[in-house]
Every structure is written in structure tokens, then in C-alpha cells.
Amino acid sequence: MDEIGFNIMDREALWLAPYAMHSCDTAGREYDEPSHPYRGPYQRDRDRIVHSSAYRRLAHKTQVFAGEKGDYHRTRLTHTLEVASIARTIGRVLRLNEDLIEALALMHDIGHPPFGHAGEDILDEFTRDWGGFNHNQQAVRIVTQLEYRYPEFPGLNLSKEILAGQRVRDKRRSDGPRLQPLLEVQVVDAADSIAYDAHDADDALELGLLEMDDLLAVPLWEEAVDRVKSRYAALDAKPFRRAVIHQILEMLVSDLVESTCRRLEVSEVASPEAASGSPTRLVAPSEAIFEQKSDLEKFLFTRVYRHPVILTERALAGDALREMFHQFSQFPERLPQSARARLEQDGVARVVCDFLAGMTDRFALEEHRRQKNT
Ligand code: MG
Fold first, then answer.
1. What domains lie within the chain, and their CATH numbers?
2. CA-based torsion, 13, 15, 20, 22: positive or negative
3. Measured in angstroms, how far is the CA atom of residue 109 from the centroid of ligand 1?
4. In angstroms, what is the span from residue 65 Cα to ligand 1's centroid?
5. How far is residue 125's CA from residue 114's CA, in Å, rounded to a whole number?
6. How many Å lie between the centroid of ligand 1 and the Cα of residue 276?
7. How far apart (Å, rounded) are the C-alpha atoms in residues 107 and 104?
8. For 363-366, which contacts have Cβ atoms below 8 Å and span 24 or more sequence positions?
9. Which of 50, 131, 314, 364 reaches 20 to 30 Å from 13, CA-CA?
């Protein structure tokens, strides 16, 4: 079996670029574990994330649009899979560590509470005196403390590169001088941004919050529309829209790969450490596409994320979480046993926050309804 395990490192040595994170250079895990006979360390991390309950619950958590609106739009889970898919494509072209990329992508949104950013804002408000709430921080808390799957240690005992990559996403942290994260982490961030730009527009169109013509005010969209029209003479509305979304993804990913390759060539980075020392991120779009992407994001912000339908939903979700927060804070004995066991160590506010954050949208709504009726 040793022979098989050895081959994974060999394969990486043959295939990965010198600036990629090689499994053999991992800083290991907090709790020492023997290496696996035929899975590399990041492959194991990926598997542990996929088997966690926090990951499964992403299926019933809001990305932007709540579940009852239909079954076309993205949930947190399908968004996560789209990010992993885009990130692996980019990682493979750049010859980065795809196992590490996949693990990072699959856990990147694992800390999201129910009801998307509305839920996050409410939980942050209630825990402000105890360090606040942020989904990136919460992801680390889940995989280091809250998941309980193995008798030997709390959490998932993931590789240190995964934890560091997730910590970097927390924009509020202030721990010392900023180094750029590993290129694998940069790829996942870029893929996340590409995925939601394209798919939030698609979902908003499907749900009728936007019309195709509204988006013509956005240069990136207009360019994609022109390209689709020049390729297909006449398409019905739905296939046309899907072709435009594919075109946008294609344009954004190709631009990212091309401009990143150029930067890697010019900067001559020859190790993951050298890539971290670069003054700016090496995995980034060209300036022109960066501008166009920002225009699309500004448009989505005002026209979709601040749409009256979404704002009403946010307010209702906020009320439900607020009421449940007060209920459980006042009567912590109503928390499940696993949460009560943490009360002494973490305090009521944090434990209630963890419990609420772990809920899916539907569990939260049911629990809220139950509380109102008793
Ligand atoms: Mg995301």
C-alpha cells in the first residue's frame, strides 16, 4: 500500500507547477494522524468536508433566493458545486493542486447561516459584544470545533493550508502583515466571484426580478449578447438567455486564465512562498474585465440584492432569527443537548448563535412557527 500512497506525491511532482502547493509540503494537521495509504492529504480533507453535516445542510440554505420560489435557482449547495467546478477548471490549466482547490471550494460557504446574508447580519448584530458573526469565521469554527465526527479529535482536523485559506477570506481579521494566500485559495475566490456574478443574474431573470433588456445597460452583458447573436441567428428567449450566461462564464474564465498566466510568467514565481510574497494577487482578471465585472456587480447589487421582493424576505427572515435568538437566550435549557454542553465554555450568545447558524432555512422556519404556537 505504501507504494500506492507514494504514487500520489509522484504524480503531483510530475504534473503540478513549481508554484503549486504540493501535498508533500503540507504543514500537517493540528492533531497528528498517520498518512492514508492511497489518498493524499487534501483528498482526505475534501472527503471529510463532503461527509460533514454542515455541508449537507447547504442543500437547504438560501444563496440569494429562498427555496419556496421554485426549483430552478441556486441553493448554497449548487452554488458551491458550481464554484468547485469552475475552480477546478482554472486550477487544472494553471497546473495547481486540484485536490486542495476542490476542498477549499466545497467548504468556502459552509459557515453560512440560514437566509443568506440577511441571516448573517442579524447574527452579527446579536453577537457584536462577543466578537460578532461572519460566515468565513464560522466555517473555521465548524471544521475545528462544532462538527463532531471522529472520536479522536473535535472538528474535522483538516490540513493547515485549508484552514489558513479559509481564514484569509475573513476580511475583518487583523492578524499581522498581509501575505497573499496560496494560488489555490486565490483561484477559489476568483471562481466564487465568477459563479455568483453569472448565476445571480440568471436566477433573477428566471424569477422575473429582471428583464433581459435591463441587463443591456451592463457592458459585459451587452458584449455577451452580441457574441451569442453573431453565433446563433435566432434563439427563443430561454435558450438565448442560457447561451448568454454560458458566454459570460466563458469570457470571465478565459480572461482570468489568460491574465493569470501572463502575470505568473512575468513575475517568474517559482514556489508557493514566492507567490504569497507578491504585492498583489496573481490570480485576477485583466483590468478591462475587472471594470466590467464591477459594473455588473453594482447593477446586481441595486437591482437584485436590493429588490423589494428580496428586502421583504430579508426582513421576515431577520424577524424569525431575532425572535428565536431571544427565546433560546432566555431559555437555554431548550437548546439541544450538544449545544447545552458548550454553554459553560462558549457562553449563551455564542452557543445560540452557533445553533441558529447551523439551521437550514426550512428548519429555522419550522422552529420559529413552533415557538410562536407554544
Ligand atoms: Mg460563495
1. 3-31+38-310 (1.10.3210.10)
2. negative
3. 5
4. 14
5. 15
6. 22
7. 5
8. 363/60, 363/114, 364/114, 364/115, 364/317, 364/320, 364/321, 364/324, 365/320
9. 50
Measured CA distances, 203 to 68, 129, 337 (Å): 14, 36, 39
Q: How far is the CA of 192 from the centre of ligand 1 (A)?
A: 5
Query: Would you give the DSSP letter of residue 359?
Result: -
Tell me how far the alpha carbon of residue 108 lies from the centroid of ligand 1, in angstroms: 6
The CA 3 to ligand 1 mean position distance, Å, reads 38
Of 49, 65, 51, 144, which is closest to residue 354 (Cα–Cα)? 144
> For every one of its 374 residues, what pLDDT tens digit does the chain have, with 9 covering 90 and above?
445 545 788 899 999 999 999 999 999 999 999 989 889 999 999 999 999 999 999 998 877 766 566 677 788 999 999 999 999 999 999 999 999 999 999 999 999 999 888 899 999 999 999 999 999 999 999 999 999 888 999 999 999 999 999 998 876 655 555 789 999 999 999 999 999 999 988 888 888 889 999 999 999 999 999 999 999 888 898 899 999 999 999 999 999 999 999 999 999 999 999 998 888 899 999 999 999 999 999 999 998 888 888 888 888 889 999 999 999 999 999 999 999 999 999 999 999 999 999 999 889 999 999 988 87
292-325 core/surface letters (b: 16 or more CB in 10 A; e: else): bbeebbebbeebbbebeebeebbeebbebbeebb
Rounded to a whole number of angstroms, the CA Rg of the chain reads 22
